[in-house]
Design a protein that fits this description.
Oligomer: single chain
Bound molecules: glycinamide ribonucleotide
Distance between the termini: 53 Å
CATH topology of the largest domain: Rossmann fold
Low-confidence stretches: none
Shape: globular
CATH superfamily of the largest domain: Formyl transferase, N-terminal domain
Mean pLDDT: 96
Helix content: 25-40%
Structural class: alpha/beta
Number of domains: 2
CATH class of the largest domain: Alpha Beta
Strand content: 15-25%
Number of strands: 9
Order of helices and strands: EHEHEHEHEHEEHEE
């Protein structure tokens, strides 16, 4: 039997992506084990979610560290101690330092609530909603030195309707996040992701059968 992929999941907030990863592991669809959840926020709801499933948690209160470098080097120490092979940012609201990135080259993933490279940074859903796009979605990508600029692994597209609110659009995006993130991690676990410059090649990615989509729909054109 091949060894399970060891995950370290970094969170700051409600932890719904963490929950989805836990659920997929418990269902046996995602062949991984969460070795540690690290929260940058003692009050994060995600901390409770991890504990409910007996997943080990470390809370690092950023206020207690003299610098970002110190915070990140403590995170790296914990993740190495737990023999983590892949670091998962799941609503982790801090920019990682270059030192941390060097500790896990090609082994850090993030999920962003927009179709990158559009609407990077904070509040991707709100930015897309206010811009008036007809489609938005979410993106899982490897993390590099930039903000949401790393090579893209998978994207999920959702429509934006005229009667949407920022909240209804955000909910639709979040549902999609919960599907694509576990799959991206499983692809990594299976060794099917190759980073080639800006691009991520996915081996055996399935049929190229996705139709063009339009919103509003075409009527006879
Ligand atoms: C998710 O929508 C995630 O895409 C976003 O924060 C939310 C966390 O939700 N991440 C970012 O905006 C990162 N720039 P969760 O804590 O319920 O998983």
């Amino acid at each position: 039997m091949t060894a399970l992929l060891n995950l370290g999941v970094l969170i700051s907030g409600s932890g719904s992506n963490l929950q989805s990863i836990i659920d997929h592991i418990e269902k046996g669809k995602l062949k991984a084990e969460i070795k540690i959840v690290i929260s940058s926020n003692p009050e994060a709801l995600g901390v409770k979610k991890a504990k409910n499933h007996s997943v080990p948690v470390a809370v690092l209160d950023s206020g207690k560290f003299a610098s970002r470098e110190e915070f990140d080097s403590e995170m790296a120490r914990i993740l190495k101690e737990k023999k983590v092979n892949l670091v998962i940012l799941a609503g982790f609201m801090r920019i990682l330092t270059p030192g941390f990135l060097k500790s896990f080259p090609g082994r850090i993933m993030n999920i962003h609530p927009a179709l990158l490279p559009s609407f990077p940074g904070l509040h991707g859903q709100k930015q897309a909603f206010e811009y008036g796009v007809k489609f938005s979605g979410c993106t899982v990508h490897f993390v590099d030195e930039g903000v949401d600029t790393g090579p893209i692994i998978i994207q999920g597209v959702v429509p934006c309707y005229d009667d949407d609110t920022e909240d209804s659009l955000s909910q639709r995006i979040l549902k999609e996040e919960h599907r694509i993130y576990p799959q991206a991690i499983q692809l990594f676990a299976e060794g099917r992701l190759q980073i080639e410059g800006r691009k991520v090649r996915v081996t055996h990615a399935g049929e190229k059968s996705i139709p063009e989509i339009h919103n509003p729909p075409l009527f006879g054109f």
